[in-house]
Design goal:
Elements: H1 4-12, H2 18-38, E1 44-49, E2 54-58, E3 64-66, H3 75-82, H4 87-100, E4 106-110, H5 116-124, E5 129-133, H6 137-149, E6 155-158, E7 161-162, E8 167-173, E9 182-183, E10 193-200, H7 202-207, E11 215-218, H8 224-229, H9 232-237, E12 241-245, H10 248-252, H11 258-267, E13 270-276, E14 279-282, E15 294-299, H12 304-310
Parallel strand pairs: 4-5, 4-11, 5-6, 7-10, 11-12
Antiparallel strand pairs: 1-2, 2-3, 8-9, 8-10, 12-15, 13-14, 13-15
Length: about 325
């Protein structure tokens, strides 16, 4: 399909008449009215076009996010396409963070991408403090812009990744899906751009003066086990609530299984749960038919009240 510039050039050069130009342009403009009609059926309230960027405004939580050109999986696009974006997850996370103390606690958003969870929690708990970690420079720029758009100053956006060691790692970055950037392995075949990013461990970050979180969200496309291994001191001594993604296909790239994460946390006296509406359901192991991708880990001693409040069935867990 011709671009606006090409259509206007065709008019100027006489390739099309003025009536043809008006008709052709309006055929393109009709999409605006289609968006206006369809937006009623999703969790977006408005899509604003300026000469610099496109900004989507969510209905709930009431946050704003930019829509970078070419990124077909950014949260606002997902919300438009599928009606909502991780609504059950953010509602449960909201209640958990409120249970922990709301704005009085610190949070870590590891693998923050464009910052949906940081933005949402800052909306629900104004003034909540924390750190959003995003190693990919371009994605980090989106994260910073989204924090600015929402006037959020208590969440620090760091251009830094987290793993089980400190140094630099190679990341494979997809222009079409910034949320699918991942640590590239030696056996990885990818058409994505390869870039070097700085990483550290959670424990080293805290030892060097970083805040201690009571809640951690972690989504790092398969490298979650390494993040948690680099946080063993924090998990042992401070016992934060963990909300993490675990996918077999991503873990396989790093030669482990999501059940290795469950076993790792079990050794630290944590229990695993899956989200079922407004409740948590105790969960033991990921099988081949498991559809869940997001999980909550609660410490048996520190979070026994959360287990009692949020679980559908807690008779097999400490209370």
């Amino acid at each position: 399909m011709d671009t606006f510039k090409e259509i206007k050039t065709a008019l100027k050069t006489g390739k099309i008449s003025k009536p043809e130009f008006i008709e052709t342009m309006y055929a393109r403009h009709k999409l605006l009215f289609e968006y206006a009609n369809e937006i009623q059926n999703c969790n977006l309230d408005a899509i604003r076009i300026s000469n610099k960027e496109i900004v989507a405004e969510f209905k709930e939580p009431k946050i704003k996010m930019i829509c970078p050109a070419g990124d077909n999986r950014i949260a606002p696009v997902e919300a438009f396409n599928f009606g909502s974006f991780e609504s059950a997850e953010i509602n449960l996370v909201k209640r958990l963070v409120g249970h922990l103390g709301g704005a009085s606690i610190n949070i870590f958003d590891i693998g923050a991408n464009a910052g949906f969870y940081s933005l949402a929690l800052s909306h629900y708990f104004p003034g909540i403090k924390g750190v959003a970690f995003e190693p990919v420079p371009l994605t980090h720029s989106y994260l910073k812009r989204n924090l600015e758009l929402n006037d959020i100053h208590e969440i620090s956006a760091l251009n830094l990744g987290l793993s089980d060691s400190t140094g630099e790692l190679t990341f494979a970055v997809s222009a079409e899906n910034s949320g699918a950037s991942f640590i590239a392995t030696s056996t990885e075949g990818t058409n994505s751009q390869l870039i070097r990013c700085t990483v550290t461990t959670v424990d080293d970050f805290i030892t060097q003066g970083g805040t201690v979180p009571a809640f951690i969200k972690c989504d790092v496309e398969g490298a979650e086990l390494f993040v948690f291994k680099g946080a063993k001191q924090l998990l042992t001594n401070n016992r934060p609530v963990i909300f993490t993604e675990m996918l077999r296909k991503w873990a396989r790239k790093f030669d482990y299984h999501p059940n290795d994460i469950i076993r790792y946390f079990a050794e630290l006296n944590y229990s695993c749960f899956i989200i079922r509406g407004e409740k948590l359901l105790p969960f033991d192991s990921v099988e081949e038919n498991t559809a869940d991708t997001n999980y909550i880990f609660l410490h048996k001693q520190n979070h026994f009240r959360a287990v009692a409040e949020f679980c559908q069935n807690n008779q097999n867990h400490d209370s």
